[in-house]
Design a protein that fits this description.
Length: about 290
């Protein structure tokens, strides 16, 4: 139980270190201070600022997910905070609430609800609810002999009001996504990866690993990439993608309660695509089913 919960909590730490990407009208102008950077709450191509919840813990909803599913009747809840900063601007999300419920051996429901702290800067963070994510994770493969799992997670994305302002005419606030994830478990080591697509033209992929150091401590590292279709013909993909390296750790206060922290940094990414650094932390709670 401890090992499973630690590993899942560590993947949540990855999720809260993933800020949003810039898209749409934000690329058409620079701010009065000369910066082209855009805070996550004002972008339409957004990564979850916290993760959906998985077996014994929580994992990223879109960018990098494991393939584990909560036991039927199991519940996982996490509350976290993060700060993103880049090119002289910043954004704070607090609280970020993530919840999941196991329905069957192969199906769980998840939700991610972030609150954005508003900024007095007219180009800064837009206060209120951020982009919301609601998903169902469906386990399609679970080979216990080889410890290989595969899952798909049909996702409903509800863009924040500020992000809606960046959409092109005819685009909708609600979008659909289909992340696919895979996981290999080898004792204290877990390797996982994912890829997927959202109907507004956003693609994403990533890979990572976690290691259970002790009965109470686990660590992780990951690399993720996201890109989008171009609104202007001939724009190279390097001008419309975002790449990030993240790392963090989780500590078990009890079998059911874990605290976690992480940091993430973009590499080879333009300001208007969300270049910056994210620091995050929080606590997760696990209630396992009493069914036999």
């Amino acid at each position: 139980m401890i090992r499973q919960s630690l590993a899942a909590s560590v993947v949540l730490t990855l999720a809260v270190s993933t800020p949003a990407l810039a898209q749409g009208k934000s690329q058409l102008h620079k701010k009065n201070n000369g910066s082209a950077a855009t805070p996550p709450s004002r972008t339409a191509l957004a990564a979850p600022s916290a993760g959906a919840v998985s077996s014994g813990g929580a994992t990223p909803l879109a960018w990098l997910d494991d393939a584990s599913v909560l036991e039927p009747g199991g519940v996982s809840f996490a509350i976290s905070a993060l700060r993103w900063g880049g090119s002289g601007i910043s954004e704070v999300n607090v609280p970020v609430v993530d919840l999941a419920l196991g329905l069957t051996r192969r199906v769980q429901l998840s939700a991610s609800v972030p609150h954005v702290v508003g900024s007095a800067d007219p180009y800064g963070a837009a206060g209120g609810l951020g982009t919301l994510y609601f998903s169902s994770k469906i386990g399609v493969l679970d080979r216990k002999a080889s410890s290989v799992k595969v899952a798909v997670s049909p996702t409903l994305e509800v863009l924040s009001p500020a992000a809606v302002d960046t959409l092109a005419a005819g685009d909708h606030r609600m979008q659909l996504g289909l992340p696919v994830s895979a996981e290999i478990d080898r004792g204290p080591v877990r390797l996982y990866g994912g890829l997927g697509y959202f109907t507004r033209g956003a693609w994403f992929t990533g890979a990572g690993g976690s290691y259970v150091v002790s009965q109470k401590v686990s660590t992780f590292g990951s690399f993720s990439r996201a890109w989008r279709r171009s609104d202007v013909p001939g724009v190279p993909i390097g001008d419309r993608d975002r790449k990030e390296i993240s790392g963090g750790a989780s500590y078990a206060l009890t079998k059911a309660v874990h605290v976690f922290g992480s940091t993430g940094r973009t590499i080879a990414t333009l300001e208007e695509n969300g270049a910056g650094t994210t620091i995050a932390g929080g606590v997760s709670f696990f209630v396992m089913s009493t069914r036999r």
